[in-house]
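Supplementary Note 3. Input sequence used for the single-chain structure prediction.
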Amino acid sequence: MTALPANISVPGSTAVLLPAADSPFNLTAAAQAGLSSGQSLAPLCTLCCCGFLNRTLAVVFMVSLAFAIVVGNVVTLTVFVQTRQSRTPQGYLKVSLAIADMMVGVLVVPFSVYTEISLMVTSAPPIWYQGSSTSVATSSSLGGLVSSWQPCMLIGPVFAGCTFVSISTIFLMTLERSVAILRPLHKDALVTRRRTLLLILLSWAASFLLALAPLIFSSNFTLEYNECSRMCNYTPLLFGNQLPPDANILLLFPAFDFTLLGGTLAVNIVSFTSIRRYSQKRKLLSEGSLTDSGGGGGGVGGCPHRPSFSDIKAAKTIGILTFAFTASFSPIAVFVLGNVVGYTWCNFSFFAFWILTGNSCCNVIIYSVRDHRFRKGVTLLFQRDQSPPHSEKT
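The predicted structure, written as discrete structure tokens, is reproduced below.
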């Protein structure tokens, strides 16, 4: 690329380089000069951004998504809290994942709804809208962050932090199931409630520390509402139409995402390979082609004891959760690669980041399909007599 990047926006948790020559939504020198002289920046419309009808449809979609996220995760939390059999390390991890997803539905999506409605009913964009905060910062002689606090300073790190929490929690769930599959005898000794709760706290602290890294370790970043993604993004402050020297700090976001997702997929591959070997060995035993020597039947991956059926089913459920999150995150990866090579996909960025947001309401659907105890808990939750069944065993 010959042109210097004019803006780096991070919708959610991914650093995106948008070249100045290709992106109409970046603040060029001429646009910034017009803003600094008191002129308003005319809204630049795309298929998903301009027009009253399109904005109305977007608001209806956001409201429906927020409702689905909040209701689904409230049901999930209620079932896991009220069911004694769910007070396990795996249950605690599922509660952590549900809390992170619910925060997206309570804070992030409603703020986008509020901003879109404000843009429809008022002619002047709010201070956190794309270009407004940047123009204020670039007009000051000292640079740095905008002096007046605005909501994107909260919403942006919350969405990024919750995304990191979701990725790290799915990674921890995968590790917990892999121990149950590969080392069933050592599962209770290695995976304890205390260790699980400590790892959950560390994942939340590390995730939000990483989400705040551009603001903590640099004074050259601000947050603003991006017109393409309809979310609050990190944006570096421009000095002479050039990026600040520490703009590379945003690369921590995709490095964290892809590292944990890659590790999760690798652990899942090992676990499912062992499950496949165990299934083949059990099939041979049932057909009489293999003798069950040693009392344990060989087990899985050389272990003399077989994993339980519930452990295998739980591992498959977490594998589906991993696949769903990876599928929802893949469009963002494609968007990042496209921007790096010089393409600007404003419409695609809207769909990519809202597909990732929609993943926050998918977990309750997966639990309902795969987890018999969860379905039973939901049934009891909506019945008048919600007394717990005495016959259910762990």
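DSSP finds 13 helices and four strands in the chain. Residues 1-45, 136-147, 294-304 have pLDDT under 50 and may be disordered.
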